[in-house]
Design brief:
The complex is a heterodimer. Chain A has a single domain (about 25-145), classed as Up-down Bundle (3 helical TM bundles of succinate and fumarate reductases). Chain A has 5 helices and no strands. Chain A has helices at about 25-50, 55-65, 70-95, 115-120, 120-145. In chain A, helix 1 (about 25-50) crosses helix 3. The radius of gyration of chain A is 21 Å and the shape is extended. Chain B is an alpha+beta fold. Chain B has 2 domains: about 10-110, Beta-grasp domain (Ubiquitin-like (UB roll), Roll); about 110-240, Alpha-helical ferredoxin (Fumarate Reductase Iron-sulfur Protein, Chain B, domain 2, Orthogonal Bundle). Chain B is built from 10 helices and 7 strands. Chain B has a 5-stranded mixed β-sheet. In chain B, a hairpin with a 2-residue loop joins strand 6 and strand 7. Chain B is globular. The mean pLDDT of chain B is about 95.
Chain lengths: ~150, ~280
């Protein structure tokens, strides 16, 4: 591959937010990445905590004792919200990546209508689905199982 | 904002001289404004009145050549295609396209993008080498087959899509919207048979799977090429190919000269070829 010359001008993580026209899908893209990273972090933590069972019952009880309390309840709630968004938006992305909902190629005539406009209903459905999941999760966390600890 | 009474505008230009500067910096210039001025017109005035060493690329001044892609008030756009009044502010911030190294001032180094484009074989690939080297006629193609790739063939390689792409911002390995859209342009051409050759480059980290549909490339494209659509359609093709479901097509055959037909009255003969 040809190496680039000159002063480096790659935007880096800041480019997830800036450098465009700030469409709704860019927010979804950034949020999808951030929630994905959050879920990976949670899974690593989850494996670390539950692996204590391999060292006997006492280690397991001690390990579980370290992850109880209101801070962890809120943390788990945030993980659930991240899951709700990531799952719903992931379904939208899976649809789009199979070429569904982006429209067929056609001769562009100004003002241009792009695949982003075509898939907008999918994005709205994904957000509604995420909101529905989040509402169900909120009900479960703070009403139905309030104060219940594992 | 009403531009009727505006007489002057301020240009904030990101300057970088590799022989003098250690890092880019912003400089401000005030220039007279006239209705209908484009950002590119303003740059010429800045060069004429204040900064004779200011460097940028431009050529056609009508949104065709794709040379003057630059970051204008935070958005990658063509300087010649953007009127100052449509920015709705009297301060015009102009920088080089991000995600490309800066050669000087507003001149980005587009070579990595163009090299990736070259590797994806942006031309008709066929097995009939003799016909390709010494063409004896045209390949047959229906208007419906033309529509499969026509939209993507309007690309002017300005690099605005690459500058807007959030994946390109953090991933130097990813091919980016322009080369991928152009690969799909040829993959979906009924005259082409180069899918398997291009697939070798498209597999892995460089390929379309790093695109997660932020859609910025399609939003900023000055020609309505819609690279995001091309990339998603390419993914569908790759999935279908993986499951052996991709339609195996023979590249378009040579269009034969009609035989046994008479010319209709009133249609003149074609002029003699000027090149033999």
């Amino acid at each position: 591959m040809l190496t680039a010359k000159g002063y480096p001008n790659r935007l880096g993580v800041g480019g997830w937010l800036g450098g465009g026209r700030w469409g709704m899908e860019r927010y979804l893209y950034t949020l999808h990445r951030l929630t994905g990273l959050g879920l990976i972090f949670y899974f690593l933590l989850h494996i670390l905590v539950t692996s204590a069972r391999a060292f006997g019952e006492a280690a397991w009880v001690a390990s579980m004792g370290r992850v109880t309390g209101p801070l962890f309840t809120v943390g788990e709630y945030l993980v659930f919200l991240a899951f709700a968004f990531h799952a719903a938006n992931g379904l939208r992305l899976a649809f789009i990546e199979l070429g569904w909902g982006v429209g067929k190629p056609f001769e562009p005539v100004y003002p241009y209508k792009t695949s982003v406009d075509f898939q907008r209903p999918l994005a709205i459905v994904a957000l509604l689905l995420a909101a529905l999941l989040a509402a169900a999760g909120t009900l479960d966390f703070f009403v139905l199982h309030k104060g219940v600890t594992p | 904002m009403d531009f009727a009474n505006v007489k002057e505008v301020t240009y904030r230009v990101r300057r970088f001289d590799p022989d003098k500067d250690r890092a880019p910096h912003w400089e401000e210039y005030r220039i007279p404004y006239a209705p209908g001025m484009t950002v590119l017109d303003g740059l010429w005035l800045v060069k004429e009145l204040h900064a004779p060493t200011l460097a940028w690329r431009s050529s056609c001044r009508m949104g065709v050549c794709g040379s003057c892609g630059m970051l204008i008030n935070g958005s990658p756009r063509l300087g010649c295609n953007t009127q100052i009044c449509e920015l709705e502010t009297t301060t015009v911030a102009v920088g080089p396209l991000p995600n490309f190294n800066i050669i000087k001032d507003l001149v980005p180094d587009l070579m990595p993008m163009l090299e990736t484009h070259r590797q994806l074989l942006p031309f008709i690939v066929r097995d009939d080498h003799e016909e390709m080297e010494k063409p004896s006629g045209e390949f047959w193609q229906s208007p419906e087959e033309l529509e499969h790739y026509l939209q993507f063939s309007y690309c002017i390689k300005c690099g605005c899509c690459m500058a807007a792409c959030p994946t390109c911002a953090t991933d130097p390995v990813y091919s980016g919207p322009m080369p991928l859209a152009q690969a799909h342009r040829y993959n979906s051409d009924s005259r082409d048979n180069g899918f398997t050759h291009r697939r070798q480059v498209l597999e892995g980290e460089r390929g379309p799977w790093r695109c997660h549909f932020a859609g910025e490339c399609s939003r900023v494209c000055p020609k309505g090429v819609d690279p995001a659509k091309a990339i998603q359609l390419m993914k569908r093709e790759l999935v279908a190919d993986y499951f052996k479901l991709r339609e195996q097509r023979c590249p378009a055959r040579l269009a034969e000269t009609p035989k046994g037909v008479a010319r209709r009255e009133g249609i003149p003969e074609a002029p003699a070829p000027t090149v033999r």
